[in-house]
Amino acid sequence: MGVFCTIVPPHILDRLARSDDPDLAGAARHALEHDARQRTRRLVPAARSAAAPAPSAASDQPRRTVYDAGHKDDLPGRKVRAEGAEPSKDASVNRAYDGLGATFETYLKAYARHSIDGHGLPLTASVHYQKGYNNAFWNGEQMVFGDGDGKLFLDFTIPVDVIGHELTHGVTQYTANLDYQDQSGALNESVSDVFGSLIKQFALGQTADQADWLIGAGLLAPGVHGVALRSMKDPGTAYDDPRLGKDPQPGTMAGYVSGSDDNGGVHVNSGIPNHAFYLVAAALGGHAWEQAGQIWYDTLTGGSLASDADFAAFAAATAAAAKARYGEGAQYQAVRSAWSTVGVTGSGSGSGSPAGSGSAELPRQQPGEQTQEA
User: Which residue ranges does the record assign to the Peptidase M4 C-terminal domain (predicted)?
Assistant: First the structure.
């Protein structure tokens, strides 16, 4: 059974839950309570050895099914579009269907991976989940999308990188199975951001310098002071809004955030490996999924990462992957330079907080709430 992963960081929902606006506070509390219940049901992560089914002859075509939850809590809901069916009159259904397809196509064409498990796993999504639900999530088995409240968040099927992000939690579940805690949890989040962005770039045919490197662009409602949920190019600049607060992500270890909230800051500290990947992609140029993405994919799927790998261990693994595939040329040098720039050095072992990194405290969470994934 997989972990429960949402796209909106809990520190945003926590802040909104304390809003003076009863509508905003109520919607945020509802999302927090819902997500806490779902996480409680999924505390046992998928074991790496038991995650993937037996190998079979996987098709080069996706097997997608989209359901309409009808603003209720029951999943998956009513089947509204199957693989190969004509487009629906419902834009959310079509965006979910297309996003599943874009994710499948990127993994297949860029990395010869058949669906998220590597063996052609059918892709399932439910749209119109609950009323005004401000999140989207991967629950270990399928994608689920809320419609947003229209005040702060729009329909969660809009950004294709959000779909790619959540499905990549499934890829991680079936491969490195990174623990969702501290630095390994931040790496889990970062890997989803990396491939979510690459899926968007692949779909648009963008080069590294053409990409916006934003996660969730188009998701924030008009009037919100921000452009996305996160920025890989410039962590900490995605939003600065009186209701949402200011983007707390650091781009280097100098800003590493310590504390126990959000499973040790998995949504905040992911900005550091995110920025490292951006630096590699920018240094190498061209299509980021080809070289930078290949190195990260080799690292994720190569079998050398411990489930509790910290930033230093991941950095060492990416350098080894670059050297194994490309030698000690530009790719290897770009990887080493990027990790050095963000302040990750040394050989890693297990997950944990860095020593002497001038860390800040995590954003406070709502009393009684346990934040776990996103």
Answer: 176-344
- Residue 372 has a pLDDT of 36
User: What is the band of 278 on the pLDDT scale with cuts at 50, 70, 90?
Assistant: very high
The pTM for the full model equals 0.90
The C-alpha atoms of residue 340 and residue 349 are separated, in whole angstroms, by: 18
Taking all residues of the chain, what is their mean pLDDT, rounded to a whole number? 89
For residues 120 and 45, the model is more confident at 120
3-class DSSP string for the chain: CCCCEECCCHHHHHHHHCCCCHHHHHHHHHHHHHHHHHHHHCCCCCCHHHHCCCCCCCCCCCCEEEEECCCCCCCCCEEEEECCCCCCCCHHHHHHHHHHHHHHHHHHHHHCCCCCCCCCCCEEEEECCCCCCCCEEECCCCEEECCCCCCCECCCCCCHHHHHHHHHHHHHHHCCCCCCCHHHHHHHHHHHHHHHHHHHHHHHCCCCCCCCCEECCCCECCCCCECCCEECCCCCCCEEECCCEECCCCCCHHHCEECCHHHHHCCCCCHHHHHHHHHHHHHHCCCCCCCHHHHHHHHHHCCCCCCCCCHHHHHHHHHHHHHHHHCCCHHHHHHHHHHHHCCCCCCCCCCCCCCCCCCEECCCCCCCCCCCCC
Residues serving a catalytic function are: 166, 267
Give me the pLDDT at residue 41, please.
64
Question: Which CATH architecture group holds 182-361?
Answer: Orthogonal Bundle (1.10)
* CATH (residue range 5-174): 3.10.170.10
